[in-house]
Design goal:
By secondary structure, the chain is of the alpha+beta class. The protein contains ten helices and 22 strands. The strands form four sheets. Strands 1, 2, 3, 4, 5, 6 and 7 form a seven-stranded mixed beta sheet that branches. Strands 17-16-13-8-22-19 form a six-stranded mixed beta sheet. It has a six-stranded mixed beta sheet with strand order 11-10-9-12-21-20, covered by helices on one side. It is globular. The model has no long low-confidence stretch (mean pLDDT about 95).
Amino acid sequence: MKADDARSYLDELVTWATAGLSAGEVLLAQLSGEDSDFVRFNHAAVRQAGNVAQRSLALDLIDGQRHAEGSVSLTGDVKTDHGRISAVLSELRAVRAALPADPHLLYSTDAGTTEHLIGGGPPQPGEAVDAVVEGAAGRDLVGIYAAGQTFRGFASSLGQRNWFSAATFNLEWSLHHHADKATKSAYAGLQWDRDVVGAKLDWSIRELEALGRTPRSLPPGGYRAYLAPAAMQEIMGMLSWGGFGLRAHRTKQTPLLRMVTEGAEFHPSVRIAEDFSGGVAPDFQSAGFSRPDSVNLVDEGRFVGHLVSPRSAQEYSVETNGAEDHEFPVAIAMAPGRLPTADVLSELGTGLYIGNLWYLNFSDRAACRTTGMTRFGTFWVEGGEIVAPIEVLRFDDTAYHLLGDRLAGLTDQTETILDSSTYEERSMESFRLPGALVEEMTFTL
């Protein structure tokens, strides 16, 4: 079954299943699928190549306020898939009979149809391979390339139909110097640009050459630092862990608690939104509710909005804005600032250039304090020039400093970072983030 045929196939399956429903039953169905190419590199050569084509169907069978959920892998053979769906629906009816009513159940009763197709321009696998092999020039590069079409569809027995697809690519790599000394980078998005990936590989080579110098060991303390967009992704990932969901705020479990109880603020230049118009996540969710183009979360440093799932909307008597039940952002975007991206080293002057952060966790969730490690691509800079690599450091600092009173500036360009997770299927989550110059970042060892 081709990807282009999956939409009509979803309609056929749900129309068929609807005809067999009992009186009062409602069926919600969400199709997830992908047609992806994968290439694995080692020593800047192709070591493994392949492709994945898969489609699965998640079902929610509802009767009043009782419901049960299940899923089935689709084969593309109508007779086989009808049999699989029929078996799952029979199991769901048996499970549902033993379940209590769900007081927070809320689903779309719309009967409309939507379509959103993001064409993109992923390269042919051979073009990506050539860029890596030529750009790495025989160095010890390891990495993975994933590209192709990912798609989601929603259909209900009430007549609603939604479809979304995006054609994306994601290339991640590390250049290894020796032992655990390496530099890490990535290039992802919708439109492939050979010059961009070439420039990123050139920067990785520049970092690799710097790794050959004697590393510097810094004592604990506060240091002026530049956080590259990949490092900012880790910080934003921690903020997303309960930071923006309505339920986390109402139950006082959000790491941004001080923003809503004490009036704490980030720097006025910080603006954060869930921006579906610039991401690659579907513009509808699993209960059929549409998502707006953008949901403002932080504006001019102040918290201004929540992500609200249908369940939270039902529980707290507010309107949903199409978040999934976990209420984590899936298309997060931070507005750029005024710091010239090309001048980050000279603007840093003397301090730490941090390409990546690792192993982050909250050290004090209520204070939005996070701890984590530097690892790849962290260098000591003097006079705007990279001087030496840095031995691994642990930081422990709060976002109210890093994005607040110690924020010196955000870069004037943002970078698109696609979540590289392929567990079960390619992720459709994305980040668009600038780099950040911080007057002082606290390191504990």
